[in-house]
Amino acid sequence: MYSRALEAAVRAAKGRDVEAPVSGSRQRAEARPLVAMLAGEATAVKEVRPPLEPLCHHRVRCGAVSQALRMKLTVNLFLIVTAPAKPGFLEVLGAALLASAVSRVKAQVQPPPLRLGRFMTVHATSLAGGR
Hints:
By secondary structure, the chain is α+β, with helices and mostly antiparallel strands. 52% of the residues lie in helices and 15% in strands.
């Protein structure tokens, strides 16, 4: 996996690698409530938490390198899979505990068609436990 190879290269150069993908829309980024998913050596992750605070109101440790990117893909997959497919879905979602700013934005935006290619196949395999 690319992130593990990158981590090996960073370590070979006597550095420390921390993955820090974020979850949130552009509007959330402007208002600061992004969520950072952090992965890497525990002491390195601890050091990057404070500089991320102005941008990310919540920072979650996900484990070793590659786990933050896997978490990001899992979150994105959840958002794609929960796209409204049946009549009444948005009404039920809006009235349920799952109602959120994300579900309201998704209700207003028609997602582009999915293009399943090599990229999605590789990551879907990775999420399923393949290497």
